[in-house]
Amino acid sequence: MKSQRSKLLHEVAGRPMLSWAVAAARGLHPDHLVVVVGHLRDQVEAHLADDAPDVTTAVQAEQKGTGHAVARGLEGLGDLSGEVVVTYGDVPMLTSQTLAGLVQAHRDGGYLATVLTADVPDPTGYGRILRQGERVAGIIEHKDASPTQRLISEINSGIYVFDAEALQQGVAALSNDNAQGEYYLTDVVTMAASGRLSGSDRSLTGVGAYRTEDLWQTEGVNDRVQLARINAEVNRRIVEGWMRAGVTVADPDTTWIQPDVDLGADVTILPGTLLNGATSVGEGATVGPDTTLTDCEVGAGAVVSRTEATLAVVGEGVRVGPWANLRPGTVLDAGVKIGAFVETKNAHLGSGTAVPRLVYAGDVTVGRDVTIGAGAMFANTDGSTTSTTTVGDGAFVGSNVVIVAPVDIAEGSFLAAGSAITQDVPAGALAVARERGHISPGWVARHQGQDAPPQSSDHRSGTPETTSSPEEHL
Predict the structure, then answer these.
(1) Is 337 marked as binding a ligand?
(2) Phi-psi region for residue 194, left (φ > 0), alpha (ψ -120 to 50) or beta?
(3) What is the reported pTM?
(4) Of 127, 189, 330, 448, which one has the fewest beta carbons inside 10 Å?
């Protein structure tokens, strides 16, 4: 991967590959679930401690092959009975259902070992399955295969189920007498096929194969090109599933939906939309274009366009965007309107409130049917302390008003445009807080050598027009 991060922690559909693998294995309800860790194991162990604390880890300090890894995984488990399933952390599309089918085929066939196989169009580089009827006679690596054997399209996925006793015998007998100096798990399969191993039940014999028709479930990830291919295929399946469930996706190629997302009937997803985490979208809502929602709740009939939102709640019938940014803690009640270039954070806006454009609303509780004009700013921090503001029902906040928290703007009050509000405003009051204005007639001519234009007169007083307002007036 050419990365400072463990390959197993690179993500498919928003989840680390290892999480997909652990979830598939956990679906078998095993008595023991062991992850063998090696390269960058500190990162992997830290992830497992948070994501899968029930998992046991085994350390493979030196990477000496798959057989060596399995030997490390078996250490400390004592004498095992039943079956041992061996799978990989970099095969994210493998499912619990496929693993369960593999185990069932193993039991039904009475085998010592059973391998998951697939027929692929181009088997180059894969180990080939050598059969004797229904049984597997052996596995031959591509580099060792004859021209005839290379024509075989059934490949070894490297995913197995073993009788526990046979596996322990086989691992103990492995040799690294080969060009790579490694211990190969395929040698245990060969031992089982040739009758050199015995199982916990003496009737168990030979090696079986369980073929999957879904080639993607055997696909591993070794570089970022393969990672992108897997991500695209997983997303294609998710998007197709939602379309078949009654969701309109205008452009599946530019729509990305993660597996924990929930969508209601008749939702419309427009191009360039990413739905991440535990996002839910209610019936009849429209999301997009060019929208990213992460762990958000969108109510029925809402419209969210060209918006970035994280940990936000958008109520029924709300309209958001374009170019809005809903940061964590945003709650928009039914019927709220959020317009262009509006940013919210820890903000609860009551039903019917309108924030048309160019507003920052952070750490604020706004009542119902409030209008907040363009350019308004809720100044919520002095650089070290964050404070909150409340705005009552039916209040009006004019354009370019700065509200310096903490203040309480009571219901029905009116904040004049351009004001800087630093104190509470009582119900029904007008708040004006501006710098004193001044107009100097003839200033341009005096400073630029031009003839002064005729002075206008105030039609009420006959004096040159000037404007002023008190510095603070409530």
Answers:
(1) no
(2) alpha
(3) 0.90
(4) 448
